[in-house]
Fold this sequence. Notes:
The protein contains 17 helices and 3 strands. It is mainly α. The chain has 4 domains: 3-66, no CATH class; 84-165, Type II secretion system (T2SS), domain F (Receptor-associated Protein, Up-down Bundle), CATH 1.20.81; 179-263, no CATH class; 284-383, Type II secretion system (T2SS), domain F (Receptor-associated Protein, Up-down Bundle). Strands 2-1-3 form a 3-stranded antiparallel β-sheet. Helix 8 (165-223) packs antiparallel against helix 12 (284-304) and helix 12 runs antiparallel to helix 17. The model is unreliable at 59-77 (pLDDT under 50).
Amino acid sequence: xxxxxxxxxxxxxxxxxxxxxxxxxxxxxxxxxxxxxxxxxxxxxxxxxxxxxxxxxxxxxxxxxxxxxxxxxxxxxxxxxxxxxxxxxxxxxxxxxxxxxxxxxxxxxxxxxxxxxxxxxxxxxxxxxxxxxxxxxxxxxxxxxxxxxxxxxxxxxxxxxxxxxxxxxxxxxxxxxxxxxxxxxxxxxxxxxxxxxxxxxxxxxxxxxxxxxxxxxxxxxxxxxxxxxxxxxxxxxxxxxxxxxxxxxxxxxxxxxxxxxxxxxxxxxxxxxxxxxxxxxxxxxxxxxxxxxxxxxxxxxxxxxxxxxxxxxxxxxxxxxxxxxxxxxxxxxxxxxxxxxxxxxxxxxxxxxxxxxxxxxxxxxxxxxxxxxxxxxxxxxxxx
Length: 384
């Protein structure tokens, strides 16, 4: 049986070389893919060389020449993530090209030529090379987890299996656009209050440290031995404390922030903090609605695209952004795995409002769970 020298990438993106026996080049590629490798070059071993050194050199040379050329230079800070806006535009354009009848590989090459973001351009070139070498599109995306998360990869995989890749990409781009839209609206709404609060704290600190002590001397001259009103004495006391213990106050703030970050890295600490975020005054309701909207839209989009419910729940849990919501989704996953309903664990978590539980219950009974989840997401997006 013929033997083939190969150069391939493993699941972590590391290059590997070796020898494989197969009936043909296509069979060798299929065998490598089944083993978890993504071949970049497969060449039959030279008959004249018992060790196949010549073939290995040729394979390595082909692998080097097929790699995208990258301009080298001094880079002080290299980005490791692509912005959500760039990814959203890529998804929308790819969906449009495939829907217009262009093959996937040609669509990727077109997008690579016109992409201005250097990191995204490099990523698209690598994906196109993987697809050209025989990898599926979803497998090629999975090699770049910092750009394409599990939600993206699994939706694409479901689209490939169902033969509706362009439809899934369109849904994915709509999902990204709605998420970006609500994020931008919330950020814009928070800018003015944030500026006002920051300025108010700065002015108040300046008054307490520099201005109020001068008034204390004036009051003493005017009133003599007469006592000051209680409120005035309280303000004077706070001013004196701030002036005498400014470094202590600053150190306490730094210590509190450090403790918050340290506790947030532990599993139990993160759960306590995220529970507090959902129940805190003023902003708790906003955080809850945002988290529920993300849960409903993510799960609804995944199930609508054909991703199995258990896998969709795992992805939704990992992208929840809140440990309390993630814990509730884990319980839902366990319940569905045992053949039980989604509703009971949602209701028992005390995280989801009765309206959400009722709508999910109706969707489950009528067989329209994805549609109902997307309606929940739309309602909560509007409320946010």
